Known about the structure:
Helices cover 55% and strands 10% of the residues of chain A. Chain A is an alpha/beta fold. The longest helix of chain A has 39 residues, at 418-456. The longest helix of chain B is centred in the first third of the chain and has 14 residues, at 72-85.
Amino acid sequence: MPTPVSAARQCLTPEAATALDGAVSVARRRSHPQTTSLHVVSALLSLPSSSLLDACCRSRNSAYSPRLQFKALELCLSVSLDRVPSSAQLPDDPPVSNSLMAAIKRAQANQRRQPENFHLYHQMALQCSFSSSSPATSPSSINNMIKVELQHLILSILDDPVVSRVFGEAGFSSTEIKLAIARPLPHLFRYGRPRGGAPLFLPDGQEFGPGGRRGLGFNFPFPVFSDVNENCRRIGELLVRSKGRNPLLVGVCAIDALRSFIESVKSKKEGCLPMQLSGLSVISAEDGLSKLVAQEKVDEARLELVFGEVSDAARQCSGAGVLVDFEDLNCFVSDRVNSDMVSLMVSRLARLLEVCSGKVWFIGATTSYDTYLKFLSRYPSAEKELDLQILPITTLRPSAAESGPRSSLMESFVPFAGFFSSLSELIIPVSGNSYQSVPSRDELNKTKTQEAISVTREGATASVADQYQCSLPSWLRMAELGTKAVCAKNKNDGSSETACTLQTETELMSAKESQQKEKSRSLSKTDSCLFGIGSREASSSMSTGSQKAMTSQHVTESCQVPKSQNENFLSKHMERPSNVEHIDSHVLKSPNLSWCNSSTDDGGQTSPASATSIPTTSLSSGANCASEATSLNAPRNRNQLVCQSPQGSNSFKEIIPGNLNLPRSSCGLSPDINVMNFKMLYGDLIQKMGRQAEAVRSICEVLCRARRETHCKAALRGDLWFTFLGSDRIGKMIIASALSNILRKHLIYVDLCPRGIRCHDVIFSEKMKSYDSKYRGKTTVDVIAGELGKNPCSIIFLENIEKADEQLQNNLSQAFCSGKFSDSYGREVSMSNAVVIAASSLVRVGGVLSVVEELGRHSEDRVLGSECWQMKILVERATWEDSVDNHDPIPCMLKTLANKRKLPGASENVVLLETSETVKRANMNLCRGLDLNLPAEGDEAFHGDDDGACPNDTDAFSGNLGGWLSEFLDRMDGEVSFKPQDLDALADDIFMGVKNSFQRHAGPGCSLEVDSKVLDQLLLAAYLSNSKNAWEEWLTQVLDREFAEVRNRFKLAQGTIVVKLLTTGELLSEDQAFGGHANLPSRIIIHPCPSLDLASCPTS
Amino acid sequence: MGTTSLLETLNVRVVGEGEKYLVLAHGFGTDQSAWQHVLPFFVPHYKIILYDLVCAGSVNPDYFDFSRYSTLDAFVDDLLNILGSLGIDSCAYVGHSVSAMIGIIASIRRPELFTKLVLVGASPRFLNDKYYHGGFEEGEIEKVFGAMEANYKAWVNSFAAVAVGADVPTAVTEYSRTLFNMRPDMALFVSRMVFNSDIRGILGMVSTPCCIIQTAKDVSVPESVAEYLKGHLGGRSTVEIMNVEGHLPHLSAPLQLAQSLRRALLL
């Protein structure tokens, strides 16, 4: 709403009112509906001796002639006025427009704020409040009493963008005009400007109207004119603060800025310091102090002297205080300084600051922030004690002096608006940094602790929790709480109190662990918690799993075993002292409870069935594993097999303290190995392996070393590369599967000679079938990448690495370097958690890989190639040929039918039958081993119908022997040599066992013929197991029984009877298998010869 | 004049549909229109804050206070005031040329406000030093100032072509236009201020992650400067050298710059 002219006039001095009248008349003449700033300008310019005209004259651009420029101004103004819409209806006095009224108000406010008028208006306000006794002391009421002087009105109007545009178009700068108006004559200003009385400035806020004008200081200010620069202004502004009041200028030009500031303070330049600081004196301490600190000796006396001077000066000074100038901070951090002296100096300064609070300031500068950091690192308390505040200095010498008008009109406003807002911003980054984040952390801590307490009230020990939590980030704390909650739940269930204590125990343990490990541990904690909370099922499986484990083992201490490592505790809780050692050692050695379970199940037997570990090796995951395992294991062990399935092991993981410490996400070997020491690992492996002690030792060494060496590639990436050389194929597999159990990795078995030796058929028969159908048409690389993608935590067992095709070679080499395995499409799978075992039957002879000759009668390949046949016993009357040897007084005979080869050490009437097939196979194997250059066709032809031959394996083999293979194997993390097993000796043992068994039942004159296939089968059983038990058990429990049966039925004592132990040619079905040994029959079919049956079988 | 008028004065605009805030700050001699070709790439992903430096031709010259804007700090005040009055408490910042300097100082003052600084054609110091190659010799630059004073228009025309570098006539035209929009005295004043500024000493105080984007050939910024920045900035910083030429990639190669910016912001 436009304001009536009369109302506006009331706010103006007579002089200004005249100007307004002129403006009103201009507006009326032009029939404008309102009187605006433009009209005022027009009126002012038309006055013969107006201050505006005068100011324009002085501020005009000297490039143009004055006459021209004023002509231009006139033109511009009239054009602008012409643009104002005119109204047909003519009111008497066009009312004052809002913008003009606003300018008047602004002028009022500025005038009131002016120091010269402060007392006047203040008194007026006081009088007003006294006289009227009304609370009308608000700024507005005071404003109403202020009559705006013409000068202020002009200045205010010039702020109007419309007006400044007009002047701008005419080539005038409204800023300069303002300057000219405010500064009637330059020389007058410098000497004649009245200084305001003492504290002219009220604290901020009072100066502002309700609008609280902040932001850019474009409001009309009171004039403080000086050529003081921005830097000085900022420094001065810092000095008046109550905290962080000692500026430290940082920046390349900081020292210059400091000098110029000191200079202007010394010369008492206008405006460089806020009013409170007037009379500030400067002491330059740089010289004295830098000399002092450069001294070798700590010279306290002289330091005292220097500080004495300062404090004296502070006491005596009449002004605001003393500013101690250190100049360059660098002199305190250079290498030459005596740091003791500096720290002493810092503490003295701090004391000085305390003693003369408010009277002493320090100021320093440094060219770079690094110097300051160095200073802080040496004297960490300095920043706080000296109350330093960093002030970044960015500009060398403010360019105001060099170009442009030296207008400082705006400047004075800045302390109230721009200045204060920027001040608050300055506070935040440096000091605010710490206090902003710290309280929040405290808060967090507090809440977390509260939570913790509320949870742990239920049972877990709060103290441990609190203590532990403090060191963890919040989300981990959260997670931990979760774990505890589960724990507490358990306790509420009442059944598993031990689990609870166990948890606490673990925490205690982990709390004791070093900080470095903390992260991984806490990770695993989260994991366990996720496990616990994430799915109810999982958590229950966790607790029930643990309970099951306990009950099934009938050993409660196995539950406390996790507490483990603390042996006292363990032994205290032992309930079966007889078994103590047994269990103790096992459990300590192996974190795998399922395995431990098996050993207790066996009731003290010395054979913890290593076969059970083999089944977990497979090409695919979990459930299959279990099923496979069942197929190979005795039903008695099924219980433990369930535990071996991934779920089971997971649930176990949550109980085992070692595992709690493992980050499962990055579950390389690392953490496991970390937990168990070499001895445990070794014991565990050798227990499953039963032989190859040396190889096992070197594997353990590599594993432990890989763990220790942090710089090692494996430690960073987590993958580990092994070479298994030598001929003990089964041994390697057992080791691999044992490792997969211990490291809880999935085993990927890949035979690179898929149609070659069928050793895997024994162990992986089921798997291989699915392998064939599942992976038909896929390259090996894709198969591996696929499996690895499914389960990154894998052990990749590459049998016959020497037969790797070129693609696989490349990808393996690449994977070795980059830690990523790519499939044939180039998609990469991370191998960072994988263990690669490259197995080969090659051996290293003098550092060179070479093929080993298998000279023994029983080659590994042949044994592994043996099938699980059903067996039969043929009882025949001895033929004449057979009876030839019968004249021998020795009751048993050794006889070979096929090739009449005598087994050394065997009795004479026990005959080993070697069928043509097996002989051929043996030949084949021998050939393959020896003749590398045999062409593929020839090889095939040679083997004839034998499907065990790989058509071109010899080529690949020989090709690989050089270049890639040796290069690849050389780079592996560890190379393990497996000694060839003495199969012959084992075979002899077995044969002797069979013979002895036979001799117990048969009389003289009876002879036994053993099919070599049977022997191989027995050999395989012995080979697969880690102890002799397998076949000995079979001999005593099965063969002995069967021989007894034969004796009863056929009166073996009568002689001239030949007993033949043969295979039936039918594969053993699962339910026919003997005990834990899937490849031995539980009973043998007895086939009496028809003739014999009639003649000498009284029973049937 | 309150904060609203500050926003009006500096032509602050907020555009875009994204969640996060992104400040695009133009450099010397341009105004916010310099970002117009880059802007469309970010509109769907950010709320973009555009503003003009007070020295830009598009701002009423009356608001340019010669004494106040004699250091970079006043420009930083403006930036922080804008963000403050918009109520922004976290944003990414892309600054070109002098605005890169402004961003650096702003992030020192308010580290929590900036999640990321992308510095395009940035230099902490344009003048050469004993151990530092800023690209300009003091005498050289005085000649430039002399040329500016003598004939601003002629200087603008020659400088625009040199600065744009690449053979993109539209970019040269555009840069000449915005450069000429600046009032000559202000242009001179600001460029003096910029050449007087030296923020090398405070680079270490930056804790915000920075990405330094530089073109392969930039008349104002030698390649070594990018490495210098990377080496001295306190926070995590990366350098990306764009395979284009000129000091004003947002004018001469907006597509490439947008890609670089996107990468930098995602880092």
